[in-house]
Amino acid sequence: MIDTSRAAMASALGSARSERSGLVVDVDRETARAVLFSLVEGRTRFVSSVSLPSTALPPIDDASVGAKQAVRAIEEHTGVELLGADGIEIPSSNDIGVDVFAVTGIPGAPVRVSIVSVGATPLESVLVAAGRRTLSEVDILTDRVRTGDGALSGSLLEAAIRGFMPDALVLAQGAAKEAEWKAAVGTLSGLVADDVVSIIIVVAGAEHQQQAAQMIGESADLRGIDPAEFSPVDIAAALEAELQSLFEKGARALNLVPATVPPAFVSRARAGDLVTRFVARRLDETIVAVDVSDGTMFHWATPSISDVIVRLDVDVTRNVRSALDIDPARITRWLPMTVSNEDLSHWVLNRALRPRTRADAPHDMAIERAILVELLRTVWQESSGTPGEQIDLLIAGRPFSRMESPGLAALSLLDIFDPDPASGLVEMVLDVDGLLFAAGAVGEASPAIAADIVENDLLARFATAVIVKGGGNEGEIVVRGQARYAGGETERIAVPAGSVHLVKLNPRKTATISLVCEGDATIGGRSELMDLVVGGDDNVDAGEFGLLVDARGRPAPPSGDAATRSARVATWLADLGFRIS
Amino acid sequence: MWTFPSLEPAVVSDGVFVIDRLLDRAGEVIVRVGDVVTPEMVVARALSSDKAIMLFVANELGVPSNSVQRYLTRPVGSKFKKGEAIARAGGLRKITVSAPADGVVVSADEQNGALVYHMSSGQAELLALVSGEVERVVPERGAVIRSFGHRLFGIVGFGHEAIGHVTVGSDRGDRELTPDLVKDAWKGRIVVCGMTVGVPALNKLKQVGVAGIIVGSLSEADIRRFLTTGSSSREARQGQFWTSRHPEAPFASASDHAPFAIVATEGFGRIPMAETVFDFLREHEDASASLMAATSVGSRLRRPEVYISGKSAGDGTRGSDELLPGRPVRIVSGRMLGAVATCRTAAYDRRSMNGVATLVAEVELPGGELRDVPVSNLEVLR
């Protein structure tokens, strides 16, 4: 889990405030975004954000160009002057500049790290999880470098390392014969001599570390850690710190936007963690945040613990080819129409060739959603330690926040996470302006600004889902109830098993919802959900989209033959306002 | 509007191009600044590079370290081709250690159960590939050439580089080239294959010995089968074939196995070659063309390029890919992929119901239908 001893926003809420405005530049290979916060009626609020295509890759090949364009665009949109003669004025003076300026995102190349265990070791999963808490692309070599008979192959190891070109390699000693350790270290010594690998972190006993040092020599930057002397948590923290520092070295070298005071770089992993942790404590709930842009990032937090999963090799743009590693049937099961495996492969490859294109027709939106759901579902389910189905609040960034159909976004989130919290209610937030990372980045320097932004701007719900489990046969009514508005007007609700129903509520009016389950159906383990007051201050916010009653059961993947499945998905989506034709 | 890797349209006629011709390792540069070059001229020569690696054969074969020589397929001192078996052991189930590259087994280390293997990359010559003038020399690497003529961007390619005369093998851009249409006379030529080619036609083109092909689109299964069947790597699993994790890797892992350069202009599937592109190639039938098929979407974006030498008719300024009314554009996303349209407006912001702004342009499809298309889904054709 992430170290919680560093300055946390929650503890800083009461701190004296000297900063009144903030600017965050958030850059990766897909987007250059600038987010501006300023004082409005005594509180720092979100003012504007601008997202432009990133210039980090050819033809421009310079991330700072897009970053500067985004800052200038913010100036134009808001009329706020940010740039003085020497760049962004910090702190602001004479109405020019901002008080806090921070940079987040993936402004440099991610750290590429290979992890190879010589023999089985429980440390491997610890090392992988540590790597995936940083802005690193982790390549796990352990199984891929063994022959059919299970022996570690030096030539397979060499080919795998040359194929990935890691910035750092972690070699972990497991339960294997001495000859295997020798083969692995010998192969690495050849790769070091050939300048393929330069940083090697050996996680092994003193004797094996010594042997590695002798065989590899002094040309590599060799670091060692002995599992007999340090706990797995310490080893993970050390690796995390090492990879974080490697990334920051590269990122700091990029002077994205000139400023009178150099901006702090706060990694997205850290920024997102600060915010999700703060929200979890504030609401006493389990929070999950997801953002898919240049790779995928999950943050989750309960009031006591938090964690992050960074998968820079998984997304629906530059890394969409990761979908080809998945059985196509697992993707097509989420489609509201029939698509052949061949057409799906072509869609994926064409998107990979032109990663900046957008799905703008319903057919393409449905395919993109199906790929997204299955990719993220797989990563979420494969990751250990997550809160599982106990999710109270989902904060969704890109691409959900860019989806033109809110129904598509809501259903995708429910399908990825299969949430089923004890309360039976899942609230959803669309982070259209990238406030999760921007608030976290600014929060490192000014927790009070971040707290204001999170509470007043980030957490506006767009939908709330009631999760119904169990129940009767498909089509039989499993939930009945009503929504009663303050003026006495009522709306009846009847939801059949196997369906998802949208109760469109007036977000400006208070309504009392009462739902009673039929048969063995339950909501949060109970047979009824009575007097749920939505709308108005201090009540559940059903959101602009409305209250969804998800009676599809858990787990969500549709069953049956291809035609039945696609018809069922089409009905779910249509019930939420998304039609394929 | 960005058309990677340049900011220019997919088809440029009478343009000026600056082309880097660089070796992948140190070598000797043959040309000097101001030299006039033709496509077949050698620009630089890479020296052979040798290096020794250890192959831990005993561990892989599961045999005692001091017996490693007994399991060699040929004695110490023998040469091996990449993929050839160096050592073999086992009873009913054979375990083989293959050569990672062309090289020689220099010695056996019986203490560690390893072989010292000397890999040699041999010499390599880098051709100018285009006609033009050497503008700059990059010491030990190559040269930057200023060239005049015409250029077409493809979207995906396999194989390396090719030089040849253009032959239009299909009478239309929306027709598949079948094996019966392939002619022996196409040997050494760059053949325009229309909408697509299947495995039988690809095999026939290989048999005939074409230098390269330009085609509208390809089926992923066909190209995967064509590039891997019959090679030592067997027909590859889909994910493995298309997903390389090296930041500069080619788009397909077996791209190097292509017996000739293959360039697709539209993408994957059965998508006709855009009429503008087909007409451009037909205009230059019999002209000398150069193909660079390399494609990469990692940290080093590369897109296939086709150069046709010509005289400088332009003023040397680069063509812009700005969306302007009247310009021909190609839709490059989803079901509409490959559709050619005419731009009717410059780009403007369109806001969705949830407030998300998208930069779009209005385009007119051939049937007269007007449609707003995100700018990121459009590519200026010429």
Can you summarize this structure?
Chain A is α/β, with parallel strands linked by helices and 581 residues long. Helices cover 33% and strands 25% of the residues of chain A. The two termini of chain A are 46 Å apart.
Features:
heterodimer, A: 581 residues, alpha/beta, nine-stranded mixed beta sheet, five-stranded mixed beta sheet, 33% helix, 25% strand, B: 382 residues, eleven-stranded mixed beta sheet, six-stranded antiparallel beta sheet, 26 strands, 37% strand
Please characterize this protein's 3D structure.
- The complex is a heterodimer of chains A (581) and B (382).
- Chain A is built from 15 helices and 25 strands.
- The longest helix of chain A has 21 residues, at 232-252.
- Chain A is an alpha/beta fold and 581 residues long.
- Chain A is 33% helix and 25% strand.
- The radius of gyration of chain A is 25 Å and the shape is globular.
- In chain A, the strands form 5 sheets. In chain A, strands 13, 14, 15, 16, 17, 18, 21, 23 and 25 form a 9-stranded mixed sheet that branches. A 5-stranded mixed sheet of chain A has the order 3-2-1-6-12, sandwiched between helices.
- In chain A, strand 4 and strand 5 form a beta hairpin.
- The two termini of chain A are 46 Å apart.
- Chain B is globular and about 80 Å long.
- The mean pLDDT of chain B is 89.
- Chain B has 5 helices and 26 strands.
- With 382 residues, chain B is mainly β.
- In chain B, a hairpin with a 4-residue loop joins strand 9 (103-109) and strand 10 (114-120).
- In chain B, the strands form 5 sheets. In chain B, strands 1, 3, 12, 13, 14, 15, 16, 17, 18, 19 and 20 form an 11-stranded mixed sheet that branches. In chain B, strands 21, 22, 23, 24, 25 and 26 form a 6-stranded antiparallel sheet that branches. Chain B has a 4-stranded antiparallel sheet with strand order 5-10-9-6.
- Chain B has helices at residues 57-61, 199-208, 220-228, 238-242, 275-283; strands at residues 11-22, 27-29, 36-37, 42-46, 50-55, 79-80, 85-89, 95-98, 103-109, 114-120, 124-127, 132-138, 142-153, 156-158, 161-168, 190-192, 212-218, 261-268, 288-292, 305-309, 328-331, 340-343, 348-351, 357-364, 370-374, 378-380.
- Chains A and B meet through helix 4, helix 5, helix 10 and helix 11 of A and strand 5, helix 1, strand 8 and helix 4 of B.
